[in-house]
Write a structure and sequence with these properties.
The protein has a domain of 187 residues: Aldolase class I (TIM Barrel, Alpha-Beta Barrel), CATH 3.20.20.70. Helix content is 39%, strand content 18%. The protein contains ten helices and eleven strands. Helix 1 links the parallel strand 1 and strand 2. The longest helix is centred in the middle third of the chain and has 22 residues. The relative contact order is 0.12. The mean pLDDT is 95.
């Protein structure tokens, strides 16, 4: 289950999502400890989220509570995406300090997508993001490190030298983190949330996650198959599960997009696909924020 950073602002919130996870059979939680270019833990690298008090370490507390309750916890890190486009970032933000690190499309725009993205081709950016990931793995007793927005915004960005170069830049960062992580703590699993369509992920986002699995630089991926119909969901997850790899896959289900009936169908679809492709080993729900307010959905996974 993915838990967004908005649930990490107090001990009571953390206790609640841990309790809900345990009571409903969730065994892995993915907590968003970096979002909007700010962190929800004590860091010497990244700016601390201003909604968290200086005496509170949300990740430390979440790790402790998860392990006390027999749950695995993955530190979910937003990578290249650092700021929404609703307002300009403050000068103290990474996008303000290093505006030269931001990527622009072929028309010179940097904000015609979700928001501001760091440039995957910039070696300084790659070093910075790697240092964030390794710092977390060194300081916290996490079970996994989960990469999100590990991609280009779309095909208009960074395509001057062709898509193969873009793919090499993203893959190179994943590979670097994987090998450095293995030296820091080989027990920490490395995973990524990815676009579910293998071809479109590669062509539009330079996210060659099929290669990541085949080359073994990730332990697992979570295709975000957020689809409103079970038919679309089934097609995408069947294709993903058919990849030849000795790694494994979890299905990302967008609970917020579907009725309880369709959610139930998608859960059943995962269980059915698992029988044919055992490398598919369950699902991750997006997100706790929705489930917290729609508690009847829990009944579909018990």
């Amino acid at each position: 289950m993915w838990v967004t950073r908005f649930q990490l602002t107090s001990k009571d919130n953390i206790k609640q999502f841990i309790t809900d996870a345990k009571n409903n059979g969730i065994n892995n939680i993915f907590v968003q400890v970096r979002g909007g270019g700010q962190c929800f833990y004590k860091s010497e690298v990244e700016q601390r989220a201003d909604v968290v008090t200086s005496d509170f370490d949300p990740l430390e507390y979440a790790v402790d509570q998860a392990h006390r309750n027999g749950l695995k916890i993955h530190a979910w890190v937003n990578m290249f995406y650092v700021w929404s486009k609703h307002e300009d970032p403050p000068i103290s933000h990474i996008a303000g300090i290093h505006s030269d690190w931001l990527i622009k499309d072929k028309y010179g725009n940097s904000d015609n997508v979700e928001g501001l993205f760091l440039n995957p081709a910039d070696k300084n950016v790659q070093s910075y993001l790697t240092s964030i990931c390794i710092e977390i793995a060194k300081k916290y007793n996490i079970n996994g490190l989960h990469l999100d927005y590990i991609r280009y915004p779309n095909a208009s960005f960074g395509n001057e030298n062709g898509n193969d170069i873009r793919c090499q830049q993203i893959t190179g960062l994943v590979e670097s983190i994987y090998y450095k992580l293995s030296h820091v703590n080989s027990n920490v699993e490395l995973s990524a949330a990815v676009y579910p369509d293998i071809t479109l992920a590669k062509l539009q986002k330079a996210q060659d996650w099929k290669k990541w699995l085949e080359s073994g630089i990730l332990d697992f991926v979570v295709p975000m198959a957020y689809r409103k119909t079970n038919e679309q969901f089934k097609d995408e997850m069947s294709a993903a599960a058919a990849i030849k790899t000795n790694k494994y896959i979890l299905a990302g289900i967008g609970t917020y997009l579907v009725s309880r009936e369709v959610f139930s169908q998608q859960v059943k679809t995962v269980r059915d696909i698992e029988k044919t492709y055992p490398k598919l080993k369950g699902w991750v729900l997006f997100s706790y924020d929705f489930l917290k307010s729609n508690r009847d959905y829990w009944n579909e996974i018990k």
